Every structure is written in C-alpha cells, then in structure tokens.
Amino acid sequence: MENPRIKIMLLGKSGMLGSCFMDFFVGMVGLNLHAYGHADLDITDAVKLREKFLEIKPDLVINCTAYTAVDDAEKNRDAAFRLNAEAVGNVAKFCKEIDAALIHFSTDYVFDGMKSAGYVEGDAVAPINVYGESKLAGEKLINESMGKYYIVRTSWLFGKNGKNFVDTMLKYGAAAIQNGTEMKVVNDQIGSPTYTHDLVNAVIGQIVEPLEDGKPLPFGIYHLTNSGVCSWYDFAKKIFEIKKMEVKVLPVTTAEFPRPAKRPNFSILLNSKMPAMRSWIEAVETYLNN
Ligand SMILES: NC(=O)c1ccc[n+]([C@@H]2O[C@H](COP(=O)([O-])OP(=O)(O)OC[C@H]3O[C@@H](n4cnc5c(N)ncnc54)[C@H](OP(=O)(O)O)[C@@H]3O)[C@@H](O)[C@H]2O)c1
User: Fold this and answer.
1) Within 6 Å (CB) of ligand 1, which residues are found?
2) Candidates 1.10.10.10, 3.40.50.300, 3.40.50.720, 3.30.450.20; correct CATH number of 7-158+192-223?
3) Residues 169, 81: Cα–Cα separation, whole Å
4) What are the tens digits of pLDDT across the range 86-103?
C-alpha cells in the first residue's frame, strides 16, 4: 500500500487491536488516515459521530472499539449494548450514508461452544453471555443497515497495549514463583489464540489492499485466528515454557473456577474463506521474544 487513494477512518486507535493497526499504518507512505481514540470521539454520541463521518467522508471505516469486559458485561448490559450494538448500528448507518466500506471485529463468543469441530462463518449463532449477545446484536445491525461490510470474527486476542491472557499469565506466574505457590488454569475451554499483529497483517493484506486496488474481497463475515487449538491450560504451559519460567500449573475445570459470564467450551473459529494464518505457538513465540 505504497500510495493509497482511499481515505481510512480508524475508530478505537488506542485499544489492543486499534494500536496494532496504528503500528502498521505509521510510516506507510501517502496514507490518508484519520484515527480516533475514545477521548477524541465517543462513538456512542450519534450526533458527533455522524458529523465526523460527514466531515471526513472516509472510503473505509475500521472499527476497533468495543466493550470487551466479558464478566462486567453481565451486570452492565446497557453499557455493553450501547457500544457493541447501538453505536455499531450507527457506524453502519453512517457508512451507508456516505457509501463507505466497513471493517468491524466480532468474536467467537457469538457461538454457544457446543460444536467441538469448530464453527464456519455460516453456522448458527447462539451466544451464552451478555458480551456475546451484544456483539451479535452489532453484527445484525450492520447486516440490516448496509452491504459493504467485512465482519471479522476472531478469538483469544493477545498483543501489545491491552489486557490479555499472555501478559496476565506472566504476571501471575512471576508471583507464583516468588511465593512458591501453584497456579490453576482452566482446561476445558478450547479455542485459538490470535496475535493482533498477525490479524492486522491479514486484514490489511487481504481486505484493505484489495479494496484499495479496486478488487475487493467479497463482502461478508470472515473468521480469522491463528491456526491450531488449545485450552487455556495448554496456552499457559506454552507461555511458561517459552519464557523458561518454572511455574507449577494445575489444570482445572470451568466448574471449579466460576466466573460471572459463562464461556463457550469449544470456541474454535474455522477460517474457511481466507488463507490460514501461522500457528498460535509460533505467534506467541514471536510476541514473547520481541
Ligand atoms: N480481546 C479479545 O480477546 C477479543 C477476542 C475476540 C474478539 N475481540 C474483538 O476484537 C475487537 C478489538 O478488541 P480489543 O481487545 O482490541 O479491545 P480493547 O483493547 O478493549 O479496545 C477497545 C477500545 O474501544 C475504546 N472505546 C470504548 N468505549 C468507546 C467509545 N464510547 N467510543 C470510542 N471508543 C471507545 C476503548 O477506549 P478506552 O479504553 O479509552 O475506553 C479501547 O481503546 C473488538 O471488537 C472485540 O470485541 C476481542
């Protein structure tokens, strides 16, 4: 993307995924980028949001904002729906008004997790927690409002500038070593960890650049995760192995580790419409060795 003609509006530039887009975009020659963080533009303010869309008139909007606190969403249903559904519906409506394309991110948590073989894009959705319900409501509002959209569902994200499992394990692992204690990690939830760097690289290469070249990928829903599956327990063990940390990790069941929000047992997204990304193990090695 040496000299892109398209004007890109990035929403949520300071979050884990948004800041990764910023890392890729910084330094791209000729980039016509208008990027906003929460403090610059509150996307739940429909009036300001529409004004900004009409002022900038982007060709492409990339929405990285979200209410991502899965457990808190159980008691803050309105806040989760305000951002993940209502505001997303407005983003889609205003995209339609100015004929912009939209890239929006969604989650494995739109599924109930009963299908151990994994989910393809067209599989029936049935969220089991408020966060998943709110994200699904956002997907539906996009679909009802416009046609030029890419909804990219991903799972178990890790990367710089965000709360994520890898950093949490490093913190708790260090404390466990210091205190001589064990760590318990859930072993009956299965999914695919996904590195923000790999996700952004794929989205730019396979969605943004073809759009820029006038050869857009068909619009619709896509699943994009790193390859391979594991449990949170396997993931934790791999993190400690890579960092050579001698942490004693005990596998536990979800029932032994209750949380406010239910989690799907199998939240494996099958990337059936895009080339596979590298394995989650290679990805976590890269993240931890940089
Ligand atoms: N994290 C995961 O494991 C995971 C898994 C699957 C799918 N996803 C999806 O991937 C996408 C990116 O997630 P992420 O982990 O990068 O999220 P994140 O780190 O929580 O970032 C979300 C961003 O949204 C901003 N934001 C919150 N309220 C806003 C508002 N009213 N107006 C404008 N901005 C607002 C936040 O800013 P403040 O912090 O300043 O409020 C934050 O920068 C989301 O769609 C998420 O649902 C994430």
Assistant:
1) 12, 14-18, 38, 42-44, 64-66, 68, 83, 105, 107, 135, 154-157, 162
2) 3.40.50.720
3) 29
4) 999 999 999 999 999 999
Question: Looking at the predicted structure, is the pLDDT value of residue 3 above 90?
Answer: no
Given a cut of 90, whether residue 235 has pLDDT beyond it is yes
If pLDDT is split at 50, 70 and 90, which confidence band does 4 have? low
**Atom 5, ligand 1: which residue's CA is nearest?**
155
Residue 285 backbone zone (phi > 0: left; psi -120 to 50: alpha; other: beta): alpha
**Do 7-158+192-223 and 165-190+228-267+278-288 share a fold?**
no
Superfamily covering domain 165-190+228-267+278-288: UDP-galactose 4-epimerase, domain 1 (3.90.25.10)
The question of whether 233 is a catalytic residue gets the answer no
Contact at 8 Å (CB) between 152 and 105?
yes
Backbone Cα Rg of the chain? 19
